[in-house]
Design a protein that fits this description.
The structure is a single chain. Helix content is about 65%, strand content about 5%. The protein is mainly alpha-helical. Helix 4 packs across helix 5. It is elongated and about 60 Å long.
Length: about 90
């Protein structure tokens, strides 16, 4: 579900106009200048994933890797290590 906010203009006019937050934030960034500072601030606000969620993501990725190779014995550690690298790359971007 998309989070929405009431705009100042709609609040003053008494209308119940809802605007998606992403749309409102893009409009604010456009008015604030070049957008470079806004992009830098957005990267600093990047959501952090706690250790439990990260572990669950790695476990699921390792499971899918094992499934693709037919659950053959002997490669479990490689599945896990590759899954760790995959999740680390995904969370960095």
């Amino acid at each position: 579900m998309t989070r929405q906010v009431t705009t100042d203009k709609s609040a003053r006019s008494g209308k119940n106009t809802r605007v998606p937050v992403a749309t409102r934030n893009k409009a604010i960034a456009k008015r604030s200048g070049s957008g470079k500072a806004t992009a830098a601030a957005a990267s600093r606000r990047k959501a952090r994933v706690d250790d439990g969620a990260r572990h669950a993501m790695i476990a699921q990725a390792a499971y899918f890797r094992a499934e693709r190779r037919g659950f053959a014995n002997g490669s479990e550690l490689n599945d896990w290590l590759e899954a760790e690298r995959e999740i680390a790359r995904m969370l960095e971007s």
